[in-house]
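ok new one. same drill as before - structure tokens go in, u give me an amino acid for every spot. 73 of them this time. try not to just spam alanines like last time pls lmao
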């Protein structure tokens, strides 16, 4: 059974030296980044998961603006 590919996973792309980190998935295409900084966009059907990313890696925290002034404002 094939693994579902998610943002943060390390994958191997068919025909490309890897592994690659999945940065984004959109409309059947995955944006990948190699550890050397190279980027690649490929169909998700050509990928196999090498290692699943942790949920903390997949979601980047967004800094929320305080709604009211604090002692430091």
């Amino acid at each position: 059974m094939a693994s579902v590919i998610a943002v943060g996973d390390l994958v191997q792309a068919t025909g490309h030296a890897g592994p690659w980190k999945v940065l984004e998935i959109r409309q059947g295409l995955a944006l990948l980044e190699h550890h050397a900084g190279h980027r690649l966009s490929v169909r998700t059907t050509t990928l196999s998961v090498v290692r699943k990313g942790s949920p903390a890696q997949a979601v980047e925290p967004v800094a929320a603006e305080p709604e009211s002034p604090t002692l430091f404002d």
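The first helix runs from residue 55 to 58. and btw Confidence is low (pLDDT under 50) at residues 58-63.
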